[in-house]
Design a protein that fits this description.
By secondary structure, this protein is an alpha+beta fold. It contains five helices and 16 strands. Helices cover 28% and strands 31% of the residues.
């Protein structure tokens, strides 16, 4: 367990702590991190003491998304550690979460800046991490909080901060699909859209995105 002091809470499950770049690299366990303004770090099972202003985290449950130029780092509670990550840790291997998240770091920072709920950030991160096992396209910011994969335009995610959800655009046929947890609505051909706002949608969301990627 590692404990950070002088922690500043900035929202539910989100804190600001002071970390040097060398400390962030240490937590990255050798993974190459993209650069940003502030380091963004995902953690599992944090214990915050509001009286002492301390944050205690298991040392094997710290996953940097990027490395920042400032000493102020953003720590985000990712919730309880999934079984898949426990299995990886038991093998003394770094979890894929750190690698996948480095590609999506600017998008995650935007979600935090737009004050998206932590459970929604965890949800979209889980979806992206699963997609990253097959596709490494970057998410590029466009207009209206819309982020699109590049160089292959098979996915777009719009941060809908007012409704606290994401609008996901994929290549799909509205009339022919196997999904039960997401509702596809026709958009500009060949795309359809659906709202991502519940953990139960994870499997269908991942499937729809991967199907979209296979269409080229």
């Amino acid at each position: 367990m590692i404990t950070f002091s002088q922690v500043l809470p900035v929202g539910p499950g989100t804190w600001i702590v002071s970390l040097t770049q060398s400390e962030v690299r240490h937590f990255a366990k050798g993974h190459i991190l993209t650069k940003g303004n502030r380091s963004v770090i995902g953690v599992n099972n944090p214990q915050y003491d509001s009286t002492k202003q301390t944050l205690s985290i298991p040392v094997d449950s710290i996953f940097p998304f990027n490395i920042g130029m400032q000493h102020q780092s953003v720590i985000v509670d990712l919730g309880s550690e999934p079984q898949s990550l426990r299995t990886e840790n038991e093998k003394h291997e770094a979890p894929d979460l750190g690698i996948a998240s480095s590609l999506d770091q600017p998008f995650i920072e935007a979600c935090i800046s737009e004050k998206m709920p932590n459970d929604m950030i965890r949800l979209v991160q889980q979806v992206l991490c699963t997609v990253r096992k097959e596709h490494k396209d970057k998410l590029i910011e466009g207009k209206g909080r819309k982020w699109t994969t590049s160089p292959n335009n098979f996915l777009a995610i719009t941060i809908q901060n007012r409704n606290k959800q994401f609008l996901v655009s994929v290549k799909a046929d509205q009339t022919r699909h196997p999904y039960q947890k997401i509702s596809l609505k026709k958009s500009r051909a060949p795309y359809c859209e659906f709202h991502l706002n519940a953990q139960s949608q994870t499997e269908d969301a991942v499937s729809a995105i991967l199907r979209s990627a296979r269409q080229g």
